[in-house]
Amino acid sequence: MPTGVPELDDLIEGGFPADSMILLVGFPGAGKTTFSGQFLYAGAERFGARGVYASFAETKRTFIRNMLRFGWDFERLEKERRVAILDLSVTREAGLQTNLNTIMETMTSMGAERLVIDSFTAISMALKDAIDVRVMVHLLYKFLKKANCVSLIILDQPWGSTSIGQGIIEFLADGIIYLETYFDEKYNLRRRLRILKMRGTNHSKSPHEYEISEDGFVILKQKRYTVEELEMMTMPALWNIARELGVSRKGRKQELINRIIRATLGVEKRLAPTISRKRRKKPAKGSASRRTTRSSKRIRAEEESEK
User: What is the gyration radius of the CA atoms in the chain, in angstroms?
Assistant: First the structure.
């Protein structure tokens, strides 16, 4: 199923797998809600796929207003019954099962093929202990498999955290898209997407820069370098490129060049050789003279024995 982000479709063999559960993970401000809105809006407008946006975090009014910034008129789509926006933020304490029933009834009545739950984090915060979270995860998983749709589950990652989820839902998910925000050497805010998991696809393993523009969520095209261009660069310049691409900066220049070429989808045939030439060991000082001396002694001994 097309994601609504054409550049992402190219990285996962055309789109999300059918009936899959995808986790969208990222820090605040990474663009998770924008990505989700684009997924639903493009589905309805371009692919004729109805969708449901179930919000446990922000209000329906806020979501519609924020999406209008990109020219996405969700109010119109809702009137046309192509998208349903469920404001569950004030009723999340009423019980997960009640909310799931509301979502299922809405999806069934309109024949929805896409679902966004914003967010798993907000749901889990309403629960008191880890056991309740585990029960909720399995309940949610069974519900989504019965829904026969592609579901996008948002996970909010706190600043400074390196973990994803509670250690359960990421194993059940069919795919994980990680939206990373960081500051470059000039302290400019940068964004980077990583596909950590996508079952049934030969997905990209490289990080990809993206931005939130007036058109929405856009993955930037990576610059492709030739071996000749990289060989002309200094090591600090290569380190900067490697840091931006999220690849290791360790090793010699030739190894670093190959890593950059692979990360930017360069032409494999033009890769510089990774195996360095074996250096001949320099003979130790005096070793040559010792060999000459031994050879001379052996020759003289043979001459004396023949006499």
Answer: 29
Whole-number Å distance between alpha carbons of 190 and 183: 6
Q: How far apart are CA 36 and CA 300, in angstroms?
A: 90
Strands 208-213 and 114-118: unpaired
Q: Which of 123, 118, 60 is nearest to 92 (CA)?
A: 123
CATH classification for the domain delimited by 6-219, as one of 3.30.750.24, 3.40.50.2020, 3.10.20.30, 3.40.50.300? 3.40.50.300
Mapped onto helix, strand or coil, the DSSP state of residue 84 is strand
Mean pLDDT of 108-112: 94
Give the domain ranges of the chain: 6-219, 227-270
**Residue among 126, 118, 125, 131 at smallest CA distance from 168:** 131
Task: Read off the pTM.
Answer: 0.73
* Range of lowest pLDDT (123-137, 147-161, 165-179): 123-137
SS3 182: strand
**CA distance to 31, 85, 205, 215, per residue, from 37 (Å):** 10, 11, 25, 12
Q: Look up residue 72 and give its two tokens.
A: 């996405």
Tabulate helix, strand, coil % of the chain (nearest 5): 45, 20, 40
Residue 9, helix vs strand vs coil: helix
